[in-house]
Structure formats: C-alpha cells, structure tokens
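Minutes, project check-in
Item: structure for the 240-residue chain
Input as provided by the requester:
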Amino acid sequence: MNHIFSSADTIGNIVVNFPKAIDTFKEYNIDFCCGGHRPLAEALKEQNLSEATVIDKLNEEYESFKDSIHSEIDWRTASYSQLIDYIVQKHHTYLQNELPALGQLVSKILRVHGEHHIELTKVHKLFNSLRTELESHLIKEEEILFPKIKQYEKDPSPELLNKALKTITELENEHTGAGDVLKELRRITDQYMTPPDGCTTYSLTYQKLYELESDLFQHIHMENNILFPRLQALKGAHTH
C-alpha cells in the first residue's frame, strides 16, 4: 500500500487533503481543529497511540476515498466568497439554531438531576460561557472579518489584508478558548455518557452536546486550517 500520509504531517494538513480523516481523528480523540498545526506524531505520542495503526487506517481510508474525490469541493482553491458562504450557511446557521434550544436542555437537566449529579452545575456553567463567546464570535466574523475578506477579493489592498489578518489573530485565540471548553465538557461528562439514572432528556442533551462538539470542530478546522492560512500566505504579496 502506498503511504500518502505519515506521522510527520500536521494534523490540519491531513484533514485539508483528506476531509474524511476527521472521522478517524474523532475516533482516537485527536484534536484536528485547534491542535491542527501539530505533527500527528506529537498527538500519537501524547496519547500513547500506535503510530502504525493510525497511519495504516488513514492511508487505507484514503485509498478507498480517492475514487470519489472529484465530487468533493476543494476548499483550498474555491473562492473566498464561496468558502465563507459555506461556513456561514452550514456552521453559523447550525449554531444560531441549536444554541438556544441546547441552553434550555442544559438548564432542564440541571434542575431535575443537579442534586445527584454535581457535575451538571459545571456543564451548565461551561456551556453558557461557550454560548456567550460563540454568539459574539459569530457576529465578529459576519460583521467584521468576512465582509473585509470579500471586499479584499474584489479589490485587494495591503491595508485591507492587514486589517483582516489582525482580526484573524483575535479569532484564532477565541477558537483555542472554545476548543478548551469543549475538551473540558467532554471530560466532565465522561465522553457524553448518560448515567444509569439519566432520563430521556438527559440522553438527548448529551447527544446534542456531542453534535455541537462535532460541528464546532469542523467549523474551526475550515477556518484555522483552510481560510485563515490562505490569507496569511498573502502577507508578502503586496511588497513586490
């Protein structure tokens, strides 16, 4: 078998070239969004995972995936407007719809089960802190950053690019904060495992939190590993 990927590749770069690698990384609990800049070897060593097992799995899956690759949009070369519209329509719309409903569910299980499950107080606090951060984060992207990028695409200028890059640095820091909260939520919920005395609402809440984590990781990946690096690579373009 030809080895397309190796442990020296960065996690983010593997996902950019092979989006289905997300499923494998989720299976092994490897952070592909905020930790995407790290070589895969580092994450494997940290979690004491077999390098051969993970690399072979990735390469096997890539072999079966590459036949259908022509039907996938290559976001590395799509226009900025197309990429931004995809992020807003898929990921921002998801958050705007799900966060209020999930907030009600998190409050409900705290009221009903909080006495016997003290971790639910922490879940409530973490979720609401994440929700507040995300809501202001989406506004910053939609009202400040994304219009600047679309404007830059139509009429490139170093001033516009520098303004966009400054905002990107802030947003990357916010992504790291969101990623840390998600990891803590996963830890204190025991990988979103409903306890034996948990009701249907309890299970639904944990399922929805898991879906939130999954969508956010893909959302952050699209920005941290694809959109932002494409703009950062243009930094010297206006000096010639």
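Outcome recorded: The chain has two domains: 11-71, 80-232.
No further action items on this chain.
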